[in-house]
Amino acid sequence: MNRNIVVITICAISVIIAAMIALGFGAVKLSIPEIMNGLFSGENSSSQRILLYVRLPRLIASIFAGAGLAVSGVIIQTVLSNPLASPGIIGVNAGAGLFAVIAMIFFPGIIWSIPAAAFIGALFSVFLVYGIARKAGASRMTLILSGVAISSLMTAGINTLANFYPDILRNLRDFQTGGFAGVQMNLLFPAGAIIGLSLILTLLFSGELEILGLGEETAQSLGLNVRFYRFIFLTLSAALAGAAVSFAGLLGFIGLMMPHIARLILPGAGKRVLVTLSALMGAAFLTLCDTAARVLFSPHEIPVGIITAFLGAPFFLWLLFRRKTHD
Predict the structure, then answer these.
(1) What's the CA gap between 112 and 266, in Å, rounded?
(2) For residues 247 and 236, is the Cβ–Cβ distance under 8 A?
(3) CA–CA gap between residue 123 and residue 167 (Å, rounded)
(4) Among 26, 40, 254, 307, which is 20 to 30 Å from 287 by CA?
(5) Per the structure, how many domains does the chain have?
(6) pLDDT at site 271
(7) Which of 98, 82, 8, 104 lies closest to 234 in space, CA to CA?
(8) What is the pTM of this model?
(9) What per-residue confidence (pLDDT) applies to 323?
(10) What is the CATH number of the domain that holds 286?
(11) Contact 117, 102 (CB under 8 A)
């Protein structure tokens, strides 16, 4: 059997296992029969209420956010030709967060406003960083430094608004850390639709992404409209990251870690396989992280962003030293 199919199948099974763990573990432990009964029976039991109103929304949120951020990282690293880039590092998440906060303040109660504003903020940030990097020399380090500067600026904007609108943004600390406490299905629906559509489009255009990853000059020599497809893919990456940020907050490092781990597992894999594998790994990874955030220090819960940061920061440093050694 093809190795790619085997690995993807294993990752898909891992998502299912992670989902069952997320539904079963918590303050109240539920067995698999109780989970099945709670999900599919009509009885109004306590286990059913726990599943439908607390754990299931968190599970769906972690799957969509993990897949969206991971694939956004694949796209950004390919289009910007920088393996150290990711939505969190180059300021895309922070830009999405700032515009999402603006929507919370000025358009309260309008469900679509938060994911739409987050998308606009992510798109603005990714093109701003890309433009600054190209103007300043487009080196890998210039891109990262530009992203750090933009991220700091956007975060300062979020903190400024928090000072002016403390009542509206009383839960902002959880948003800035990243997590799924209190996530609601009515917000997940529009954001999840954006992530799902963007994932499908990324897979459909994976051939063009493959060519774009060969470099601008090579892509042009092969007849690819580089400017057009660069815009398309950066827009897709902004949609994926922005929609995830709209309900998950400023989660970091997933878009950096998952593409690299996927390349380590399947070196030389094509972009369609890499996108699929990264999405599945991101979904399983974030689901397990959220479960750990709920149960490790029970009855206290920590934001899942803390766990991803503890795991992601050492990975980023390892990546830096690894690339320096190879260079």
Answers:
(1) 38
(2) no
(3) 28
(4) 40
(5) 1
(6) 94
(7) 82
(8) 0.92
(9) 66
(10) 1.10.3470.10
(11) yes
Q: Which helix (H) or strand (E) holds 109?
A: none
Angle between helices 113-136 and 226-248 (to 10 degrees): 130
Q: Are 96 and 151 in contact (CB under 8 A)?
A: no
Q: Average model confidence (pLDDT) for the chain?
A: 89
**175-to-95, 251, 317, 325 alpha-carbon distances in Å:** 13, 9, 25, 37
DSSP alpha helix (H) spans, 165-270: 172-177, 185-204, 206-212, 216-221, 226-248, 254-265
At which residue do the structure tokens 């099945």 appear? 36
Q: Are 194 and 119 in contact (CB under 8 A)?
A: yes
- Give CA 64 to chain center in angstroms: 8
**DSSP state at residue 223:** T
User: Residue 270: which region, alpha, beta or left (left: phi > 0; alpha: psi -120 to 50)?
Assistant: beta
CA 307/CA 286 separation, integer angstroms: 10
Condensed to tens digits (0 to 9), the pLDDT of residues 78-126 reads 988 888 888 988 889 999 999 999 998 988 878 788 899 999 999 999 9
For the chain, residues with pLDDT lower than 50 are none
Task: For residue 210, give both structure tokens.
Answer: 């493959």
Residue 326 has a pLDDT of 57
